[in-house]
Amino acid sequence: MTPLKNCQICHIPTNGKRHYGVVSCRACAAFFRRAGCSNRSKKCKKLKNCVAKEDGFFACKFCRLQKCLNAGMSSESFQFNRDGYQVAKIPMTMDTFLGKPNFIIFRASNETSSSKNFIDVQYLIDRVAQVLQEGPETPIISKSKLGKLSLGLRNIQGTTKYPDPKSVEMYGKNEALAQVEYDILSVTKWVTHFDEFQKLPHVLKLTMLEGIWNIWWKLERISDVARKIKANLNEEMLRKLDKDHLFHAWDLKQLDFSWFSKNTVEELKFFLDIPTEIRLDPLTQLMLDLDPSDIELSFMLSQLCFQYVGKRFQGEILRISEKFQEILADDLHDYYVNDMSNPYYMKRLAKMMKINNQIQLDVYRSKVRSSLGHVFDIFDIEVSHPELFIDLTPC
């Protein structure tokens, strides 16, 4: 072992190693390094003969530096820029040269709006107006407004059309527009069974339909999947299924979205909510556990739509939506108390609201992602009535 010696600067015991040419302690070596690299001048407030205390503490930096120099310390052995990251340069790439990230640089060149596909949906607006004017296809008698909506829902469920992968060779523009037309008209027919809605001015009815048709179908499709699962699997088989079990997946080659974007289906799925799989996801599991009646499902659809459209448009529509929700909530209470003899229904109501709240959250997240698609201009389509699709794609 190296014999212990005293520091030649402060005279405290040290390990005998030499620092900058002199046997010194680490504290004095570090001080000399700092002082030697500093441009600030140091002055002695006494007679330039200050000494260290017994514990090695120096009160005067000037005298300490002079003792270092007199003992033979030299700054010639100082080493600088020993860390590799301090001298390494960022390699010149396209994104560093331009100051833009890759996902913005390497995209399709800008094109004029005239090159985008234009879709005129005025015919659909006219059909919606006609359905609203004519009212329900068949008169329905029920003791409550919520009951009428549930009967109208049964008619829609009996004729619901979903694309069948086995019978559809290619799901493209014509199939997508036909599906949108069916979805919008179905919701329009359903809502005509609500007398309070039919009393609104025509302009207000159209505006509210713009906001509710897409989110209405999000809940109804979850309900439809749950009904089909229950119809084909018994309780024991359901319990054996893993979470997120895959029931069906579309072959992406069957999906043709070239009519509104140059991006692939996988790329578009980042920006849009494109359901290409049917899984036992958390929402479907919640719906299976709830197993709502027609009255309960009608209330869930109404509450989800009117709450969402009220938040979206605010003002008069918000006041109307809150009034509608109160009317239907009273009908639901009467249903539980009088028809079901169940005044303690809060647990079921909480489950219903949990599903609705999760759907709204998913919609808001989807809108954030779709807005990015609008920023990056990935959609090659323009629509005559973009407000009808604001919750679907940023046209």
TrEMBL record:
UniProt GO MF annotations: DNA-binding transcription factor activity; RNA polymerase II cis-regulatory region sequence-specific DNA binding; zinc ion binding
The keyword Protease appears for this protein: no
InterPro entries referenced in this protein's UniProt entry, alphabetically: C.elegans_Orphan_NR, HNF4-like_DBD, NHR-like_dom_sf, Nucl_hrmn_rcpt_lig-bd, Znf_hrmn_rcpt, Znf_NHR/GATA
Top-level taxonomic group: Eukaryota
Annotated compartments: Nucleus
Annotated ranges, domain NR LBD: 145-392
Domain Nuclear receptor intervals: 4-80
Alphabetized SMART domains for the sequence: HOLI (SM00430), ZnF_C4 (SM00399)
The keyword DNA-binding belongs to this UniProt entry's keyword annotation: yes
Cellular compartments per GO CC: nucleus
Entry keyword set: DNA-binding, Metal-binding, Nucleus, Receptor, Transcription, Transcription regulation, Zinc, Zinc-finger
PANTHER family for the chain: NUCLEAR HORMONE RECEPTOR FAMILY, NUCLEAR HORMONE RECEPTOR FAMILY-RELATED
Family designation: Belongs to the nuclear hormone receptor family.
Protein known as: Nuclear Hormone Receptor family
Lineage of producing organism: Eukaryota, Metazoa, Ecdysozoa, Nematoda, Chromadorea
